[in-house]
Amino acid sequence: MGGKFLKISIESCRGNLVDWISQMKKRIKELISDLQDFYLLSFHGMMGVVRRPFYFKDLIEQMDYAGSGSLLIIVLISLFLGMALSLQLSAELSLLGLKMYTGKVVGISIIREIGPVLTAVVFAGRVGSGIASELGSMVLGHQVDTLRVFGVDPVKKLVTPRIWSAFLMLPVLTIIGDCVSLFGAYYIAVFVSHQSGTFYWSSIREVLVYENVLAGSIKPFIFGVLIACISCHMGLSTKGGAVGLRKTTTKAVVISFIAIIVADFVLTRILLYALGFSL
Amino acid sequence: MIEFDQVFFSYGQRSILNGLSFAIDESERVAILGGSGDGKTTILKLIIGLLRPDSGKILIDGEDIAEKTEVELRDIRIRFSMVFQDGALFDSLNVKENVAFPLREYTEMTEEEIDHKVRELLRRVGLEQAIGQMPEELSGGMHRRVAIMRAMAAFEPKMFLYDEATTGLDPVSADVICKLILDLSRQGSGFIIVTHKMFDAFRLANRFMFLKGGRIAFDGDREALFRSTLPEIGIFLGELNAQREG
Question: In Å, how far from its chain's centre is CA A83?
Answer without folding.
Answer: 23
